[in-house]
Structure formats: C-alpha cells, structure tokens
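User: I'm new to structure prediction. If I give you an amino acid sequence, what do you actually give back? Let's try with this one:
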Amino acid sequence: MTLKTITKIASLCFCFLLSISVSGQKFGFVNTQELIQSLPEVKEANSNIEAYQTQLQKKGQEMLQSFQTKYQDLERKQAQGEISPVQLETEAQKLKEEETKILEFEQTSQQKIMEKSETLLSPIRDKIQNAIDAVAAENGFDYIFDYSTGFILYGDESADVGNLVKAKLGM
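Assistant: Good question. You get back a string of structure tokens that encode the predicted 3D arrangement of the chain. For your 171 residues, that looks like this:
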C-alpha cells in the first residue's frame, strides 16, 4: 500500500466515524443580539451608561473651560504687564499641572465607562447564558450556536431556540 492509499483510507474512516458520532446529536441556534436588544434590562442599563457618560463629559468640559479661562487670564495679565516673570512661571506650572489632571480625567473616564458597562451588562449576559443552558438541558440539545455571530452556514428554522430562551427569560 502506498502512503496516498493509506491517507485516503484513514480520511474515509475518520469521516465515517465523524458522521456516526454527529448523527445522534441535537443542534440548535439562537440570535443573542436579538435577545439582548429586546430585554428591557439592557435598555435601562444602556440608559444608565449613557447618563454616566454624559455626567463625566460635563465634568470634563467644566474642567477644560476652567483651564481655558485661567489660561486666557494669565495671557491677559502677561500682555498688560500685571504679572512678574516669577509669578508667570509659577502660574504656568499650575496650569501645566491642571492640564495633566484633565488628561488623566479623560483617560480614567473612559475606563470608568467601560467598568460601568461591564458591571451593568455582565449580569444580563449571565442571565441569557443561564437561560440558554436551561433550554439546552430541558430540550436535549447537544449544541446551540449563536446565529448573530454569523458562524452558521445553514440553520433549519425549526432549530431556532430563540422563543424557548425568551420564554425562559419571561419575555
């Protein structure tokens, strides 16, 4: 026997064994994006995240406006000769520190928004996953695929477990 013949036989055996093992399994799919969009908790969480983001943006704008006012005032004092070079240097250093604080605030704000989002949305994702797990266990599914990710090339509509998951979520 040649190597090609042995490879062909091994491939056929593998395909045969795979088809036997897959034939007894039950598959289902669900569109998690549709579930997420239809949950009232998600809408409430997104609203809270947006309000928090707006609050942080407002504070950042206030900090920036204060900085700009102080900077313009310092420029005016310098132009009119109302400030000594030593005072100018001191005030410029204070403005540099304030600018650094504004930049740090912007960076930490993004991090805080991500943390808030994770805090509010993680329990919802867990709730959906628990409902999917329960539907799979109750209905004997071996695998349930997420239709929204685009990894299914074909899906029989009768395998869509979205309504069962919605029922489990009380929707």
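You can read the tokens as a compact description of the fold. Here is one thing that stands out. Residues 2 and 20 are 27 Å apart (CA to CA).
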